[in-house]
């Protein structure tokens, strides 16, 4: 049976593939930048409950970061050096998608994290045991997304204008994420090789992006956005 | 034998004392405000290592917050409502001690957390089993303070000016903490009663402040400040 990522994939990438270090480093800086984005966005929280919700989400990202730090240390890698090449792309993503309202912050936390999780989960299927486990662990959804879905769908149901604005915002997040992913792929060869090896070939990569788009739509609907 | 907090104290305050809810609520908002202070201060970090260290410290505060939230829920208390009376005092403390440099941020994280921990630990000795355990747990020192001690003592050893400035800063932190503690004590009767019951009487309260001052000096010395 051919290895096909859209069916049930079999591990094809060994844990000492150099791309694994790159993947962990990218994930690690992703957690750090998400931490700072969430804690800065919380300043716009309308009440204590929202402030606490975003702080808890941010803290969960650091828990994941520490898991990756541990994994990189076991590989003998200096995490700070390893993260360096990914700083710019992630900062650019956040700079180009700075929320201007509290609701935009919530949509970004939910949609952005979801997109990243979809992508890494697709890759995880072809990674060997322990590596796949770490990737899945650091992407585990937190209970806090319920808070986001409740807040956003309530606001959207109450105002067609809010709905229209947030729908555009959700699309823009997808676009900016793709832009930065392409930037990273073009500059980090070992990571790009790992992704290609994970999906099989270019055709399967296109299918992967289609599936991500579908998952994105499912999340937009969960928020009451179309 | 008389109950004396400076010897080995025996639990004198039952877990259903209304002051316990107040104490948990104060501790809980303390964690939230520390989270936001640390994550905002991290913007001044000179490198990725510093940025990560402060984010980890902030995340640890949220872990403690969640422990307190759980404890308050078990007591049938709405944590958001319970924290409300403490928001102003803690925000005022942070507003009056906003660090203007990275080193001031580090000193504040270390000295401020230490002062709070000393105070709560003194009280914990007279609280009944489970309550005392929660208080001690959320005050447990994190491994991150080693980072602070290293960074600050290195900078202080290299520059007498830095040393002089940070010594004044450390004193100011103590002064502002006392100011806000007095403000809280004057306004929250049940909490003030709990503290007095915990220490025994006014004379013992004075002794407690003397011990806190001594502990403060020990921490200042650990940072290379006199």
From TrEMBL, chains A, B:
SUPFAM superfamilies: Ferritin-like. It holds the Pfam family MiaE_2. It comes from Speluncibacter jeojiensis. This is Ferritin-like domain-containing protein. The lineage of its organism: Bacteria, Bacillati, Actinomycetota, Actinomycetes, Mycobacteriales. InterPro entries: Ferritin-like, Ferritin-like_SF, Ferritin_actino. Residues 19-196 form the Ferritin-like domain.
């Amino acid at each position: 049976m051919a290895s096909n990522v859209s069916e049930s994939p079999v591990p094809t990438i060994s844990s000492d593939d150099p791309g694994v270090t790159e993947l962990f480093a990218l994930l690690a800086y992703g957690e750090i930048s998400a931490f700072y984005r969430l804690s800065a966005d919380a300043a716009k929280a309308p009440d204590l409950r929202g402030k606490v919700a975003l702080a808890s989400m941010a803290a969960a990202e650091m828990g994941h970061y520490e898991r990756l730090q541990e994994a990189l240390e076991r590989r003998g890698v200096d995490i700070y050096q390893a993260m360096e090449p990914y700083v710019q792309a992630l900062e650019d993503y956040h700079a180009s998608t700075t929320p201007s309202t509290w609701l935009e912050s919530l949509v970004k936390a939910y949609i952005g994290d979801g997109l990243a999780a979809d992508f890494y989960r697709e890759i995880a299927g072809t990674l060997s045991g322990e590596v796949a486990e770490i990737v899945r662990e650091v992407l585990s959804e937190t209970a806090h997304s319920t808070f986001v879905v409740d807040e956003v769908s309530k606001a959207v149901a109450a105002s067609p204008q809010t709905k229209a604005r947030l729908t555009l915002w959700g699309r823009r997040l997808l676009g900016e994420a793709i832009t930065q992913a392409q930037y990273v792929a073009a500059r980090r060869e070992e990571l790009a090789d790992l992704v290609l090896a994970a999906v099989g070939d270019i055709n399967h990569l296109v299918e992967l992006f289609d599936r991500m788009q579908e998952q994105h739509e499912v999340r937009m609907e969960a928020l009451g956005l179309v």
